[in-house]
Amino acid sequence: MASLVPLLLSPLFLLAQQGLTPEDAVRLALEQNAYLAGSASRITVAEGLRTQAGLKPNPRLFLQSENARIPVPAPMKFWTDTDSFSYVSQVFETNGKRQRRVDVASENVRGAELTLALQKAQVASRVLGAYWSAVGAERLASVLGESLKVLDQTVEFQRLRVKEGALPEADLTRVLLEYQQVAITYQNAQQDARRLLLLLYREMGLPQESRATLRGDLAAVAAIALPDVDAAVENRADVRLSAQAVQQAQATVRLQRANARPDPEVLFGYKRTLGFNTVVAGVQINLPVRNKNQGAIAAAAADSTAAAADLRATRMAAKTEIEALLGEYQQKRDLVQQMLPTLREQANLTRRIADAVYREGASDLLRLLDAERVRIQTETLYVQSLIQYRLSAINLQTALGQLP
Hints:
Low-confidence stretches: 1-9
Order of helices and strands: HHHHEHEHHHHEEHH
Radius of gyration: 38 Å
Helix content: over 70%
CATH superfamily: Outer membrane efflux proteins (OEP)
Structural class: alpha+beta
Largest sheet: 4 strands, antiparallel
CATH class: Mainly Alpha
Distance between the termini: 37 Å
């Protein structure tokens, strides 16, 4: 029984029992995505390198003996006839090098965190897009299924009237042809729904579970809060990552400039020579005559200039994208909320009137089939517009930095 507990708590079992909401899809994708797990590990790597960057140089121990003669003359006293050294040395970093290294490493950590945030937003955007595309495909298949039922009733009605001799058999053939066309379209729509469901599970990083029901309401689109465009640009993960790259490049410039100053190495210890105990002390300093770290400084400065240019380009592209997506979102919203509802009502009303008139014998079959065809086209247009509305909302939220 204990072995069943992990199974009952598994994501697939819960999905099969409760259904899948868009929030569930995003949450599971963020938990299960292997690429995100790799990026999270890279943050740990960067944190380890930051710890390493903050460590001070180790002291060095020297044990040395000089003036031992070969071959050894007799008699020779090693302790009095040789020089023995025992001393330690320590490098003292100047010009804040250790703090500069920590600053660069901290920027690397921040960059890894922002990269993970950007990847999470991209995963959430792809999952939501796949989710609503799958929901829309199921809705389209449902619309065609309902139309198929209506046409099936029309076929039965035609068969009865033909059997009674009230209608020619050509009308029955015409209805059967229309029925078969809708049936083929319905099968294709079902296949598209299955394919898009598989795509959704692939984006989530989970195996496909056919028993899970998509519970999202395609028509219930919440209004998007539209902040100031300039503030939205700065809130985007890609802009923040570009801004962080500028900070990292500037920190690298400061580090390379600090590295241009040499670090003194102080030594102190013990020396025994000719039987006398003495003290050894000294200082070693590299003379910056030829190597002044000028190449590394120039490269870091150029990288800082390039990072600043990339940030300006990223901000401009982000602002243009937000403005374009905002216009697209508003157009799709107006279409779904204002134009299409009236069009749907008119198409449904026309179909009901055509059916009633036809059953009374006051109209021909072609008018009925035309009315049904227009209704199917209108419903298909409505569902497709809802899908595009959803996708435009997702794209706008992604561009505004509101995901996940």
